[in-house]
Amino acid sequence: MSWQRPALLWTAVLAAGLGLWAGHRLTPVPAPAVSTPPAAKPPIPVLRAGDALPALVLPGVDGQTLDIRQRFSGRPLLVNVWASWCGPCIEEMPELARFAEAQGERGVQVLGLALDTPEGVADFLQRVPVGYPIVLDTPGPRDASVQLGNAQGLLPYSVLFDAQGRMVKAKLGPFEHGEIAGWVE
């Protein structure tokens, strides 16, 4: 009888272990919760010659919002996208300022679109003042530059719109001295 007790004890331990194992294996595992990914935003169409100026309302350096379509309608518009940390952008700013000043009240309007911080732009404009309006936007995959056709996201980027607000052409890279006047014609 003494040999039966350890055997009985081992049998009970083995049965309990098998029972736990079987219970674990046979218990249905709940399916993982399926999370629905957020709806993807539709891609921004690439702006092409003949396309209308997108509806852009952006803050100016003074903090006041500016409706680009409304403010610049009726005359050709050259939008120059830049940033205070962009070397080629900085080099072309005096050329853009001279061009804008030479246009007067009837010529091509110039708008600077800074993909930058308000502080960065304010500091830059104190050193290199320009006489044309500047608006601000935060760089990102759907920023105003992308909406204006800058699919590569490189700077500087310029786009010309006719008096009816239709895109005429775009340029990636800085303007050379004296190039702008010939480019907008």
TrEMBL record:
Top-level taxon of origin: Bacteria
Pfam families: Redoxin
Span of domain Thioredoxin: 47-185
UniProt-recorded name of the protein: TlpA family protein disulfide reductase
Phylogenetic lineage: Bacteria, Pseudomonadati, Pseudomonadota, Gammaproteobacteria, Lysobacterales
